[in-house]
Amino acid sequence: MNLYIQQRIFTWGDKFSIYDEAGNEKYYVEGEILTFGKKLHLYDLRGRELAYIEQQLMTFLPKYLIYRSNAEFAEVVKEFTFFHQEYTVNGPGMDAGWSVHGDFFDHDYEITDGDTVIASVTKEWFTLGDAYEISFGAGVDEIAALAVVLVIDACIDAQS
Fold first, then answer.
1. Protein fold of 2-159
2. What mean pLDDT, rounded, does the chain reach?
């Protein structure tokens, strides 16, 4: 299954719409404004919060916590590397850790669980605002994978 993330432009704060393969809106994301650190909320179309992402401040490397049902689900940490970027995803809500690797400057990367591809992300070029295509592996928790993609986007955005 594929989903498409489209950043809304001309808005206060971070706002994204997430579409299915037929072009129907499936989820939306709203960021809080006037806060210390990035805070994002992932909602379904009925307005129910599916995930909450919060940037942890006062850390040496970027670190974000992902909450589901008001409980910590996972943490995403940017690893210390010299020539490339790499992220790890671990937490109480996950069976095993995930790693994120690829070409982050071109927004082309994969989230993997060992040898299994959880999701592949590619940037759609020549669009108004950022747009991404996410291809999920079979049986993947798409909310967890979407939350990780939103964290990576926040990290990349903070670097530019």
1. Tubby Protein; Chain A (3.20.90)
2. 88
